[in-house]
Write a structure and sequence with these properties.
With 217 residues, the chain is an all-alpha fold. It has 9 helices and no strands.
Length: 217
């Protein structure tokens, strides 16, 4: 959905923002930017929202490069991220921009700080986020972004599971797929096992649907 100016709608932007923050806060520093990138590209240049997403994308990239000991890449991205975020209110859209700007200055001056303490957490309205704490549609964005990050997962399987979960909600039936999609996004340790369970349930559901459709052919 887009707004009249051709950019992302308010609800889509809020959902993408929250999904990316939740992905980042569970340690998926590289994947987080994928929740924001398409929305950022759709926004008019030099607007506050465009600068916010551009700055956050470069912030997460700076953290990612610092963790990989690419010091020059980290410092360059920290500097440019700070420039994009510099003129925004310190709590724009609820994001802890004042803390982010301070951290970017530290990272620019001393990127090896990443080896002495964990990266700064992102917060919205003062709270860290996890995918399991999001509404389903926002967690679904996170799940699909994470699936696209790893070769071990088929993003199409996750997309079909998301649709199966939506059908469950529309039908008022069990919420198995809803829970599995949210668990897949939220739990890096058990993610492989959750994906296997989700794939198995999805294959069973689709076979049953094919059998029912076959009765009317």
């Amino acid at each position: 959905m887009t707004d009249a100016a051709g950019g992302a709608s308010e609800s889509d932007l809020t959902r993408a923002l929250r999904a990316g923050v939740a992905i980042y806060d569970i340690g998926e520093y590289h994947a987080a930017h994928d929740a924001w990138e398409d929305h950022w590209l759709d926004l008019p240049k030099h607007t506050d929202d465009e600068r916010l997403l551009h700055g956050l994308i470069q912030f997460t990239a700076a953290v990612y490069h610092a963790r990989r000991r690419n010091w020059s890449g980290a410092t360059g991205l920290a500097e440019s991220a700070g420039e994009y975020l510099a003129d925004l209110p310190s709590d724009y859209r609820g994001v802890n921009l004042a803390g982010i700007r301070r951290y970017l200055a530290v990272l620019h001056a001393d990127p090896e700080v990443i080896e002495r303490r964990p990266p700064l957490a992102l917060r919205i309205d003062g709270e860290r986020l996890r995918p399991a704490e999001l509404d389903f549609e926002t967690a679904a964005v996170a799940a699909q972004v994470i699936a696209g990050e790893y070769d071990a997962f088929d993003a199409d399987v996750i997309a079909r599971a998301v649709e199966a979960a939506r059908e469950e909600v529309r039908e008022g039936t069990e919420t198995r797929f809803t829970a599995l999609v949210m668990d897949f996004a939220d739990d890096p340790v058990q993610r492989d096992l959750i994906y296997q369970r989700l794939s198995s349930h999805l294959a069973k559901r689709e076979r049953e649907q094919e059998d029912v459709e076959g009765l009317f052919d």
